[in-house]
């Protein structure tokens, strides 16, 4: 008799649990990004760790432009039409389009280089509006990155900056780099590259103009084609500073910045809090807690450079 009662109890409990899941809220999250890269995968995994399961209580509507900026307004409008609960707009490029599409649906960014400088938030502490997230602080780091490059390349006076005019955060970053270059008595040359095909011209121009080193501002395009960027830098024998370790792992010389995968994971936490009722305006923008300096000694040797001990001692990782 007791076994029968227990059996009935567990069957009822299972039925009630299934009913609760089937009748529970299914959240719909929109994603605007370049493609299904490692960052988006890290974001998905972090949501899973927080208890969200696609097909049960979560639907992810991912829209990727794959470098075709012309389709972005259509992709953003589609997410608004679907009435998603939150939009993950990975960087400033995608925040700008999402912001134009909606002022109501919460927007979370993961690797925005400068949300204040672009006007996407009022301040880091008090974002205001419907936008918040995690930032790479690229503008603030640019002076440090340029100084590390100067320290690595003896007598450096002529620097080229590879940037993307369609990346909103690159504007504030260039102003900061201009100011830093003047302080360090360097001559700065801007090397614009919107499409992958324009990277060849940018690096060829740097070589032709006798630029001594290059600073690459990260954009969705350069991140996706990091191998090509590094290959061009090596082809023209140009010491180059990057913002993320993936470039150095691909053969680049130096990288200093935050971990983009960690920022994507933390962005999932923002989405979770918003789904539970928090307002983006009241969620301070989160800054990186750790910056890493990665050096590739093999690349330095190929370029005929000796990395100074002062740089090596500060490196978090040295690739040999």
CATH architecture of the largest domain: 3-Layer(aba) Sandwich
Helix coverage percent of residues?
Answer: 40-55%
CATH topology of the largest domain: Rossmann fold
Roughly how many Å is the radius of gyration?
23 Å
Mean pLDDT: 91
**Major β-sheet strand ordering:** 7-6-8-9-10-11-12
Q: What structural class results from the helix and strand content?
A: alpha/beta
Q: In whole angstroms, how far apart are the ends? A: 71 Å
Q: Give the overall shape, derived from the CA principal axes.
A: elongated
Structure, explained:
The protein is of the alpha/beta class and 320 residues long. The protein folds into 2 domains: 22-136 and 260-282, Rossmann fold, CATH 3.40.50; 138-257 and 291-319, Response regulator (Rossmann fold). 44% of the residues lie in helices and 19% in strands. It is built from 13 helices and 12 strands. The longest helix is centred in the N-terminal third of the chain and has 22 residues, at 2-23.
